[in-house]
Specification:
It is built from twelve helices and 27 strands. Strands 18-15-14-13-12-11-10-19 form an eight-stranded parallel beta sheet. 50% of the residues are buried. The N terminus is likely disordered. Helix 9 runs parallel beside helix 10. It has three domains: 81 residues, Immunoglobulin-like (Sandwich); 282 residues, TIM Barrel (Alpha-Beta Barrel), CATH 3.20.20; 81 residues, Sandwich (Immunoglobulin-like). The radius of gyration is 22 Å and the shape is globular. It is of the alpha/beta class and 492 residues long. It binds alpha-D-galactopyranose. The site of alpha-D-galactopyranose has 10 residues, from loops.
Length: 492
């Protein structure tokens, strides 16, 4: 008898944990399922690389109808490569077949002026590893992106942040990587990353030095963009340390690099990182950026007030107001994910100051970033994720919200006490609703049709429990745990 409370408690924990646990093996069982972006942008006459994200039992075969001239699809990996010269919208039918069945999906390739038609998804070295970044680590992360199933769910970029640099540029001003950390050079690394169907990102700064005091990009924009293109780089995060503070200078310096990248001969995504101080959501797109940070650096903390570094909640408070600036090809960036670092990230743990967040808080962090159509850049050690972390980062239903081709950033529609409700329109006419409880106590809350401005009866699906939850008419009763976010998809 004495055992009973312990047993009940354990069962409750298991049930709660299981609610957002998604076994990796599940991804590779059953018939094929498509994920990720259904729309991909690339510049004309530049290398194209896209892996059709699909899970399901292996082996698996990919075929495509109406593939534009210049592109090839590898039938066993789903990796599309080549280059397209004529601008235009190419509508493909991709079929994926395995022993359990087949699945067909429309994929749109847009050859033109716009990249990142859905938010970038990938990994970045900074939050977890800071200056310990090196070649082996980058290769390991590319391998882990594949072995964890993340690539097949749509994650694409492996981004090297600060500290890839040698002490100085070469004698003609070209950037040089640290030979000890990157013994085979960048081209070797990009070949490896590309061979996995993934893309390689790099980091620099609009000042003379990066924030970590390595050489910056200021006055070297053309030579840097050209060299990055030669190295096979696909994304540049451009920081703003050691610079004059004015908006005018920022616009000039980011324009210079944006233009250089545009003329580099590759489709290089441009990520602006001036921490939101100069409202980059107003000029980021115009200088060639695909997304821009809205805040100082995220810390592994739910709520820690500071002006130089932000807690997850402080970023949320800023990001939620910026919904009207996001859309296909131009996104607000509330900074990388800290999911799974548990206070141990070298940049985000604040040398022991931040103890990290709980799995429920990480689930809230991830839910809201997906609702906000934010770039999803995991920044944990992908080689050693525990089950809860993997379940969060690989929840296909949440990823589908982030990658929805309509590209709408969720709007806050209700805020009362500690309950906040966010609403995101989806391209298939359904809506996603997130209900967040910011308090330290459990809350009962009735979601009402009037808050969502919807009529008639809607089908409700719980995107963390992965189950159909019933029919919504006027009211939906919820119990929200402390710091939890419940995410529902409502379809007619
Ligand atoms: C700044 C950026 C971080 C990271 C570091 C690297 O702080 O905001 O995301 O890139 O620089 O030094």
């Amino acid at each position: 008898m004495k055992q009973q409370p312990v047993l009940v408690f354990s069962l409750l924990i298991l049930f709660h944990f299981g609610a957002f646990c998604q076994n990796k093996n599940v991804l590779y069982e059953g018939p094929p399922v498509f994920h990720g972006a259904q729309i991909v942008g690339n510049y004309p006459n530049t290398p194209f690389l896209f892996t059709v994200p699909a899970t399901g039992a292996r082996p698996i075969t990919f075929t495509a109808k109406n593939l534009p001239a210049g592109l090839l699809l590898d039938p066993s990996t789903g990796i599309i490569t080549g280059s397209v010269s004529s601008p235009g919208e190419y509508k493909l039918k991709v079929t994926v077949t395995n022993a359990k069945g087949n699945s067909e999906e429309d994929l749109k390739i847009v050859i033109g002026e716009t990249l990142c038609l859905t938010p970038a998804m990938g990994w970045n070295s900074w939050n977890v590893f800071t200056k310990t970044l090196n070649e082996k680590m980058v290769m390991d992360m590319a391998d882990a992106m594949v072995s964890t199933g993340m690539r097949d769910l749509g994650y694409q970029y492996i981004n090297m942040d600060d500290f890839w640099h040698a002490d100085t540029r070469d004698s003609i001003g070209r950037p040089v990587p640290d030979a000890k950390k990157f013994p085979h050079g960048m081209k070797y690394l990009s070949n490896y990353v590309h061979s996995k169907g993934l893309k390689l990102g790099i980091y620099s700064c609009a000042g003379n030095m990066t924030c970590g005091r390595r050489f910056g990009g200021y006055t070297y924009e053309e030579i840097d963009a050209k060299t990055y293109a030669e190295w096979g780089i696909d994304l540049l995060k451009y920081d703003y340390c050691y610079t004059p503070p004015t908006t005018k200078t920022a616009v000039e310096r980011y324009s210079k690099m944006g233009t250089a990248l545009k003329h580099s001969g590759r489709s290089i995504v441009f990520s602006i990182c001036e921490w939101g101080f100069r409202h980059p959501w107003k000029w980021g797109q115009q200088v060639g950026g695909q997304y821009w940070r809205v805040s100082p650096d995220i810390m592994d903390s739910w709520k820690f007030p500071s002006i130089w570094v932000f807690s997850m909640k402080a970023i949320l408070n800023r990001e939620e107001k910026l919904w009207k600036y996001a859309g296909p090809g131009h996104w607000n960036d509330p900074d990388m994910l800290i999911v799974g670092n548990y206070g141990k990230g070298l940049a985000t743990g604040g040398n022991g100051l931040y103890k990290g967040m709980t799995d429920v808080e990480y689930q809230t962090h991830f839910s809201l970033w997906c609702m906000f159509a934010a770039p999803l850049l995991a920044s944990n050690d992908l080689r050693s994720m525990n089950e809860a972390t993997a379940a969060i980062l690989t929840n296909p239903e949440m990823l589908a919200l982030d990658q929805d081709p309509l590209g709408e950033q969720a709007k806050p529609v209700y805020k009362m006490g500690c309950i906040r409700v966010y609403l995101k329109q989806l391209s298939d006419g359904s809506v996603a609703v997130a209900v967040l409880n910011t308090s330290a106590g459990e809350k009962k809350f009735d979601l009402r049709a009037s808050m969502l401005d919807i009529q008639s009866v809607w089908r409700v699906r719980d995107l963390w429990k992965h189950e159909e939850a019933g029919a919504f008419k006027d009211k939906w009763a919820l119990t929200v745990q402390p710091h939890q976010t419940i995410v529902l998809k409502l379809s007619r």
